[in-house]
Amino acid sequence: MGLMERVYSVLTVSRKESFADSLASLLPEKKFDPVVNLNSGAAARRAMLERDFDLVIIDFPLSDESGVRLAIEAVGNKKSVALIVVSADKYTEIFMKVAEYGVFTLMKPLPQREAERAVEWMCVTRERLRGYERAEKSVSEKMEEIRLVNRAKWILIDVLGMSENDAHRYIEKQAMNRCVTKSEVARGIISTYE
């Protein structure tokens, strides 16, 4: 699924209702759903515990905190992209605090076109994170397969007296003959002999 047909979940956090209203036109329902608008860091943290959000947009400062820590926590799960919108006099200070974590920072007032561009950048960045998630999952699945196959090989060596090479070839041949993965063959060996 590409950028154009993907639907993104959004969390906006601001002490002012007008902030969420100003973003509403940038977040049409067909592309952004759900859009959750909250007014405090505490409420945002509760929402982030219940679900992951693709995009988190924070209007600095919040009613109960600055929002800096919230932005950093939001990107910590590696599934969210965060943007913090700050006044011109605080921009450099806040940027220096959040940039190393990958949090975007924009200056208020936020012109419509700049806000649109920021949301587009956030979506592009979220897609890049999805690519990393897929690669990470692939590597962890491969590592799990290696662990299972090694465990099954040692069972074949210990129980049936096979050499390591013979045990490895046996697992590969069984997987090819039965049209299943080596992991499935290994699981069968493990459940049979343990």
From TrEMBL:
GO BP of this protein: phosphorelay signal transduction system
Domain Response regulatory: 9-123
4-aspartylphosphate modifications at: D59
Domain called ANTAR: residue spans: 129-190
Record Pfam families: ANTAR (PF03861), Response_reg (PF00072)
Keywords: Phosphoprotein
Top-level lineage group: Bacteria
Role summary: May play the central regulatory role in sporulation. It may be an element of the effector pathway responsible for the activation of sporulation genes in response to nutritional stress. Spo0A may act in concert with spo0H (a sigma factor) to control the expression of some genes that are critical to the sporulation process.
Protein name: Stage 0 sporulation protein A homolog
Organism the protein comes from: Candidatus Stercoripulliclostridium pullicola
